[in-house]
Amino acid sequence: MTAIPFTPAVGGRIPSSSPLRLTLAPAGAPPALIDGAWWPRSRNLTEQLPALVEYLDPLWGRITRIAVSRAFWLVIPGAVPAHGHMVRVGWSHAGQDPHTLLLLSHTFGRWDLLVIPPETAPATAARLMATATDPSRSLTATRLIHGPNVSGPRQRQRPTRTRSGRRSGTPKADTTPATPPHALLTDRSPVTGPPRQ
After folding, report:
1. pTM (predicted TM-score)
2. pLDDT for 49-76, tens place per residue?
3. Which of 45, 55, 92, 174 would suit a FRET pair with 83, their CA atoms being 20 to 30 Å apart?
4. Residue 161, H or E segment
5. 153 vs 99, 140, 143, 177, CA distance in Å?
6. Could you give phi then psi for residue 102, rounded to 5 degrees?
């Protein structure tokens, strides 16, 4: 796990004294549904996204597009300034996990970050950031957020009959696939991004 304290200069404004709260999967980690975790300080994308993009641009190549979930963010700007260019911001309807932020780069393709709600308690956020970058990670963002003790597929009760004919409940793993975090991006002028590499 890489914890990244970073305070960029955004659009000529004086940088915030609060560092960027971001963790990224270690270099060489196996591919997973989530590439890291971001814990914004508010739900104001116009204020929060420039610092994130300014940090990630040198690492991942120029970020050109960001997709967010309309379920998580109340106001979604059409674009935000970052690192000397404008980054288009779009949203996904039902296809994108509401707790992910999708970033597209011309150089490296696609990255998915877990978005930890700003109001999350610090201890919980620290656990989520560590879990999101664990090399054995395999959960969706929503499963991470809503399942503090989740270690595998959720269990459901499936009634069976015993020899005496009475019903009893035995857990059966739920193999229903989670909604894939990669979905068609939709914004004011739809453009599909490069495939994940």
Report:
1. 0.65
2. 999 999 998 888 899 999 999 888 888 9
3. 92
4. strand 155-161
5. 19, 11, 10, 10
6. -105, 125
